Predict the structure of Methionine ABC transporter ATP-binding protein.
Amino acid sequence: MITLSDIQKIFSTKDGSVHAVDKVNLQINEGEIFGIIGYSGAGKSTLIRMLNMLERPTHGEVVIAGKELSKLSKKELRKARQEIGMIFQHFNLLWSRTVFENIEFPLEIAGVPKEKRGERVRELISLVGLEGRDGSYPSQLSGGQKQRVGIARALANNPKVLLCDEATSALDPKTTDSILDLLVSINQKLGLTVILITHEMHVIRKICHQVAVMEQGKIVEQGPVLDVFRHPQQNMTKEFVKQIIEPEETKESLAQWLQNSEEGKVVRLTFVGKDAERPLITELIRKFNIEVNILQGKISKTLESSYGTLFIHLRGEEPEIEKAVQFIRQEQVELEVIEHV
Ligand SMILES: Nc1ncnc2c1ncn2[C@@H]1O[C@H](COP(=O)(O)OP(=O)(O)OP(=O)(O)O)[C@@H](O)[C@H]1O
């Protein structure tokens, strides 16, 4: 268990003090993939760097596995850091060392004898899928392969926690997906707790159990991923959730549909989990004397379930449409009548 209590980080600059992280309280359970999302400048990097004391909090406590990090001596902190691996947006590899030597490096630092290091490095190379690349230099690798080296290096000393600082932000979407899949498989195989920061809701949707939304140094909302997707409370959270449910072009299409639909109602339905698999539209057409026009639909997978949105146009007599709307609401499917964009 990781507990942050009243964590604050204030930077003093020549223009005054900056409250980068402001009284943050968080609890992260063992084995969880916990995502922190926020726009640039929200304080995410500063927050994650306080989890291994790369940045020391101005106030507050970081407790990992019962140890309060700021109270540890230098030697104890070095030992505690072996339990906390970290990967970075720009990989931070040693450019003059091969893949093998990069992964071996933390083992050397930890004083693991040479004969044991080789075996461990080969294990890690196979875990991250880099067989055959032992002798390559970072400059000879693709972005995704570099991040695989970063992950193997971070796991070398069997940490219990992996911190990911925008680990996929420099990668294209396909490579991002393959690295995210690797993080999930490591989380499941090794029971590792993964804490990541990102500005992309896609990353949260794909691999996180829990999400916290950060704005101006504070956590403004948090909870299990599906709960937050289903009932976002803060405007900031709603904006992030829109990244998943409404592609950019939807806004334009919505305006057009509304123009062409003086009659009836345009509604957005949101389905979560098993709801996404039920034949609601068929039921609507059977039960009510209305026409149902499907305008756009999308189902996205989350780590543990699925999440879908469907835009439909209901046409018919007003009372009949009203009854259909009531029926949908009773069926525990979220429904929003769209009146303007
Ligand atoms: N060493 C520092 N000295 C002074 N101010 C800093 C320092 N590090 C960060 N800040 C300020 O703290 C605030 C939060 O920065 P931080 O990098 O943690 O945000 P972020 O959400 O990670 O954004 P980004 O993704 O752009 O890095 C910003 O206003 C930033 O300018």
